[in-house]
Structure formats: C-alpha cells, structure tokens
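Lab notebook, design round three. We kept the backbone fixed and only want residue identities now. Task for the bench partner: fill in a sequence for the structure below.
Input structure tokens:
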C-alpha cells in the first residue's frame, strides 16, 4: 500500500516499529465518527473500546478487531426525486 513499510527507528536507544492504520482501520474510525455524529454522542468511549492488532498479511498495518456497529433503525430513506424536490422546491428561499 503506497510502498509504506514498517521502519525500525531508534528513539532514545529503543528500537520501535512505525505502524500505519489499514484501510479497514481507517474505515472503522470513520464509521465511529459517523455513528457519533448521527446519534449526537461522545466519540471518546467508542475509540477507547477499539482493539487494534497487527494485520497478518501486512506486518506494518493495524486493523480493528471490534469495529462499531452502525444501525439506521428508524431512518427513512428518501428517493432521489424526493431529495431533489426538497432541495430545490422553492428557489426563492435561497435569497
């Protein structure tokens, strides 16, 4: 992925491996943010509950083993026509 690899780094005489988030982990973080925005809740507790592990196929990336569950119960989907009608129902409202 973009040629990024784990790089052993010597910081204060300790060797560490630099890790990156996998696409899966990035998606889990973005879904967590979306969930908290929709539910108007604090994101910190969900982030603290996330467990990260090293991806077996790419030893320099982390994955989330317990991503959040995002539910859209009670959300009514609109058709494209309904959405467009709501957005442009009265062009005079823009002014």
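Proposed sequence:
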């Amino acid at each position: 992925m973009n040629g990024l690899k784990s790089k052993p780094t010597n910081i204060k005489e300790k060797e560490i491996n630099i890790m990156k988030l996998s696409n899966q982990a990035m998606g889990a973080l973005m879904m967590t943010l979306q969930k908290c925005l929709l539910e108007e809740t604090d994101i910190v507790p969900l982030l603290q509950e996330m467990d990260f592990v090293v991806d077996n196929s790419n030893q320099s990336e982390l994955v989330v083993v317990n991503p959040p569950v995002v539910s859209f119960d009670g959300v009514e989907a609109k058709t494209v026509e309904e959405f467009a009608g709501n957005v442009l129902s009265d062009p005079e409202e823009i002014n």
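Keep this in mind before ordering anything: The chain is about 35% helix and 20% strand.
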